[in-house]
Each structure stands twice: as structure tokens, then as C-alpha cells.
Amino acid sequence: MATATTDPHNLFLREDAETQGDVLAGFKKDHMQLLFLRFESPETARTWLKQLRPLIATTKQVASFNREFSRARSYSGGDDPRNLNALWYGLSLTFEGLSFLTGHNPLPGVDSNSTDGPLKAFVEGPAKRAEALGDTGQNAPQNWLFGNFGDGRVHAVLTLAADQPHVLRATLGDVRQDLARASIVTVYEQEGATLEGPRRGREHFGFKDGVSEPAIKHLDEPDPDNPVYEKGHPGTILIKPGEFVVGLERERPHPLPYPEWAQHGSFQVVRRLAQDVPGWWAGVAAQLKVLKEAKAAPPEATTEWLAARLVGRWRSGTPVAKCPHADMSYNAESSNDNLISFRDDPQGTTTPLWSHLRKTNPRDGFPVRGKDKEFHPDTKFNHRRLMRRGIPYGLPFDPSASALNGPDAPRGLVFVCYQADLFRQFEFIQRDWMNDETFPKPNPDTHHEKVDPGPFPTGSDPVAGEETVVRWERPQGGEPVALSFAQFVRTEGAVYAFVPSVSVIDQLAEGRMNTNMVVSGFTIFTVGSFDNTERDTVDSGTVRLFLQPDGNLVVIDNSNDRVLWSADTANPAREKTQARFADGEFFVCTVKEGNQIDQKLWTSGTAGKPEAKLVVQTDGNVVIYHQGKAIWHTDTALR
Questions:
Q1: Sequence-separated (6 or more) residues with CB below 8 Å from residue 409
Q2: Among the listed residues 456, 513, 523, 101, the one whose alpha carbon sits nearest the alpha carbon of residue 296
Q3: Which tens digit of pLDDT belongs to each residue from 86-124?
């Protein structure tokens, strides 16, 4: 992989042959099949993995194809080039799948006593965390088609994506034979396909999908006039790649100590989301009647008008914030517009606070606590963004067509997203934004914060969230109107999986994996995390590197809690003490207001090596490596 750089114009990720291709570049195919697999024999599964490995698509391959496809499409006046086709393979593995392939725990430092966080979320999986995510009642795991318990257990997800359906069908025949020979059970197969005709590029409710996806720094070219955004896509923010790929540059200096096997990989969420299309539109029509009876909507308002406010965009993708009265379906630029501001609409009188658009990406619509008329910038929540790669399944609702187009036919969205942190990205958006009736909170960045909703709570996301009552703000002021919406999107299966790098797939095929815990890039360790997750510990299962509440940095033997090494930085009188890893140097410091360094209390003395890594090893030693050589260690190896 090419060397990283701080220059945003250095597009080194286009040469990335380690990260799988769907994560950053995106397969972007019209036809996709996901096979949810369970291994029966470690030996035959590893043999299958060796055969599969050469077929796995990388970022370099997919990004190169996508650029060529876009150029050819522009030359043809917007039509897809007929002679430019590809078939992509992707593979992800669940916690159980990694354990099965290697015969040991891939995360020995995570157990039932660990504080909640991304690694614990991965270990537990979505079925165990269903209640917190709103997957209860008819959405509960016992009703899922895959990803639950017993026969629904999943070890791996194999993704095939193709431009042409006949190519995908032919390939699936070969894949199924290979799986049978390896004694691998197909728990479930989920097809997906872009809707045809005028519905192309839209989901089943009828709205353009994928408009708000972020761009990737060092993969997508920045705008020369405003490098915050992607060139040619105003408002599409360039996100640092470490929010989606482990080990790369991140937006915020969270301690994200991940095992060595996670480097250049990504955590994947797959959810089968069934959509009740006629029910949703009927619900919108019923609530429009409520609004008109309360004289809270203009007389000319239509069902389309209210539906656009639930989504935050019109069917074409045109944002309601810019075109509140009518769609601009004839305007291609408007339908791809991401340059959206909510600062002039803090109460949600134009684009409701509970709209799907604001619930999943608040942009600059959050006021700063305690500061009148001051708002957070639209980059505030870059570390919450997801890389979505979903696709519809089933035939569109059309009661005049066949039974497969009827109201009870299976249809919905195969939701797929990638991130480096399951807890702070997907789960936070699902739990603390979409399904939280008090959104937006006074502090929009805090997990599980309880806020008194008052007599008129904002409500949950009425498009993809739970059953809810939302607060409709009258533009002219006065008492809000309560609108009731049932749950129209049901969870019918869910999996948390990990998308390993190409090198790690090779290791897994040999039954090996490196569980040393790695910290890279600028990282802050602090005591008393605001979101109640571990920001003070890196645990390898053998030892834990720990910043104690008194400010002392220590290495502790997990078997007996004995201190093996200490930086001797205990300073109870100083409330703000941090440990930092930056520029290859590990040090403990006191900090002033705004997290500015006050005084260094201890240092490893290894500054000036930005590519260095801090590794908490399973043998008990804590080591700083630079270019493969140890340049500092605690000398605490236990074996």
C-alpha cells in the first residue's frame, strides 16, 4: 500500500491492494447476492478460503474500474457502457467465524466485564444487542431469517456483485458447488437488485437513495476552492479514511486499540429491512389529514409534500431545505445536492428535526450548548458517518401487476454499511439519533444521555425507526401537532461481521491471526470518558495498559492484577491528566483548558516517528515499533 500523507491531493488510497474493494470504493453493481454461511469443519473451511482469496476484490481494483466506468458513462451521455462489466467478490467474518477458523478467541481482552464499545459490540453481535437497537416485538431476533441463534448462526458473509444478472447466476452455481464440497452450510441467501425503469436508483418507498454518502479523503479528489468537499460534489464532505478502515487517519483522537488482525479491515453491518410500502404511504396520507384539520399545513399540501418532510428530500433527492414547496425532479444538480444547511431552521419548521435526513446526519443543525444562535459546523459529526452500500430486494409495489408486486410480497432494503467503530457509528445513529424521541439532545454527542422530552417530544424516525409520535412545529408558532406513525420498516435479519484485509485472509486460511493490540496515529487516553466507554485501557488479554484515575500509567498482569511496570506519574492533585501517543512518542501529561498540554510528566523519548505503532502484545510486553524494529518497550513479557 502506498505511503500515507497529510496532503489531501495525494490519492494514495487508489493504490490500496490490502483493503477489500466494497468498503471505500464501493462495488456499485445492479445485482448483488449475499450468502450467509456457517462452517462445519475448520480444515475444509480454510481450504475453501485459500481458493477464494485470489477472487477477493481490492480497493485498487474496484476504484480503478469505477473511474473508468464513470468516464465511459460521461462519453455516452449518461448511459451505462454496455461493454464494461465486472464481477466482484467480498468476504466478511463474524466473531464466531474468526474463532472457528483459528481455534482460539480473536479478542482475548474483551469479556463480559469489559466496558461497552466497538469490540464488545462485535463480540456480542446484533441479536444480543437487539433491545437497545429497537429490534423488539415483530423485529426481535427469534423472528429473523439469519443472524440469530441456533440454525440462524452465521460465520461468514460472502458478497457477489455483478453488472449482468446472467453472470451472477452462473457464478452462483459454481460458488454453491464449492461450498458443498467444503461442507459449508448456506444459512440464508439474500438477493438484491437495482429497481428498474423510473425507479432506478430509488428505494421501495420511491425516494432516491445514497445521495448523502460521504467522500473519502485520499481516495476522492478535493474541491480546489473548498477542500472540505469532494470535487464536483458541493456539500459532500471528505471524511478521513480511518472512520471506515481500521488503522488509518481518524477524525478524532479516540483510543481505538484494535488487534493486529483488524488493521486495514472494516466492521460490517448487514440488515434485511422489510418495507411496508402501501402502509407507509397510507400512514402519511392519514397524518396529512390530521395536519389539515389542525390548520397546521397549507391547503394545497399533498401526500407527496408531507412524505418529503418525513424523508427530508423529495423523491428526486432534491432537499426540502432548499425547495420546500415542490420537487425539482428535472434538475440533476438539485437531485444530488448535499450543500444543505439547517442553521436557519433550528426548530425544524421546514425540514423537521425527526426527518430521516436530519436523524441520520444532523449537519449544522445542532446549536452549541449555552451559546445563543451558535451552531456546530457541518463537520462536527464526521466521526459518526457510515459508508452505506445497500441495495433493494423484491419487486416494487404495483397492485395491478403480479402477486409478487402485491402488498404482502417480500420487498425492502439490504442494508449494508462499513465503519471502524460499531459502537460510535452504526449503533449510536440507530439508538441515540434515529430511535431517540428526545433528539436533538442538549449534548448531541453523548451516549445514553437521558433528557426530559417534555409534553411534546421530537419523536423517532418515522421512515425507518420505531413506532412513534412526532412533534409537528407550526411555522407560524403555536402549540405543536402530534402525528402518529406505525413502524413500517421491520428487521428480518442482522449480522455484525468483519471485513479482513487481503493479508489477513491469507493468515486465516492458515489458521493464524495476530491478536496483539495496536494503537497508531494520534491517540488520547483519558480518565472519565464522557460516553462511558473505555478510553483509558488497552487490553491484550494477558496484560492491560491502563491510565489510572490518579494519572499513573501502568501495565497490569490480568491474571493477578499485579503492576508489572509504572511510569510513576500519579498526581492526585492534578485533575486533568492524559496519556498520549503522537508522532511516535508515548507520554503522560497534564492538560489545560481546551486539551492543551501543560506539562509532560513522562515520555518514551521516541518522538519524530509518525509511522510508529504502540503495541500491547499477548506475551505481556508493551512495545513501540518503527519500520518493524522495537524502539521502546516496558520489558514486561510474561512468556
A1: 394, 395, 397, 403
A2: 456
A3: 999 999 999 999 999 999 999 999 987 787 889 999 999
State how far the Cα of 76 lies from the Cα of 83, in Å rounded to an integer.
12
Instruction: Kindly state the DSSP code that residue 430 receives in the 8-state scheme.
Output: I
Report helix angle 277-293 to 303-311, nearest 10.
Answer: 110
User: What's the pLDDT at 146?
Assistant: 97
Q: Copy the grid coordinates of residue 493.
A: 435479519
pLDDT of residue 162: 97
Dist CA 392 CA 412 (whole Å): 6
- Cα dihedral 410, 412, 416, 421 sign: negative
Half-sphere exposure (Cβ direction) of 396: Cα atoms closer than 13 Å: 16
- Name the residue with cell 454527542: 445
Calculate the dihedral angle through the C-alpha atoms of 565, 421, 501, 629, rounding to the nearest 10 degrees.
Answer: -20
Say whether 334 sits in a helix, a strand or coil: helix
All three cell numbers of 507:
493468515
> pTM, whole model, 2 decimals?
0.94
Contacts of 283 (CB under 8 A, 6+ apart): 485, 486, 488
What cell numbers appear for 426 in the block? Answer: 452504526
Q: Are 612 and 630 in contact (CB under 8 A)?
A: no
Q: How many CA atoms lie within 13 A of 119 on its CB side?
A: 29
Q: Whole-angstrom Cα distance, residue 310 to residue 610?
A: 46
What are the grid coordinates assigned to 222, written together? 478535493
Under 8 Å between Cβ of 207 and 281: no
pLDDT in tens, 465-482: 999 999 999 988 889 999
The three cell numbers of residue 388 are 452505506
Tell me: cis bond preceding 440? Omega within 30 of 0 counts. yes
* DSSP letter string, 134-193: T--GGGSGGG-SSSSSGGG--SEEEEEEESSHHHHHHHHHHHHHHHHHTT-EEEEEEEEE
Write out pLDDT tens, residues 395-421: 999 988 898 999 999 999 999 999 999
Q: Cell 503495541, residue?
A: 615
* Residue at 146: amino acid letter: F
Type of residue numbered 267: F
- Distance between alpha carbon 357 and the CA centroid of its chain, in Å? 16
Q: How far apart are CA 505 and CA 418, in angstroms?
A: 18
Distance CA 315, CA 199 (A): 10
* 112 dihedral zone (left: phi>0; alpha: psi -120 to 50; beta): alpha
User: Which pLDDT belongs to residue 2?
Assistant: 43
* Three-class DSSP category at 121: helix
Over the Cα atoms of the chain, what is R_g?
A: 25
Residue 539 · residue 558 · CB < 8 Å = yes
C-alpha 135/C-alpha 349 separation (Å) is 30
Strands 233-239 and 215-216: parallel
> In 3D, which of 304, 265, 270 has the Cα closest to residue 288?
304
Average pLDDT along the chain: 92
Q: Is the pLDDT of residue 602 over 90?
A: yes
What are 483's strand-pairing partners?
A: 470
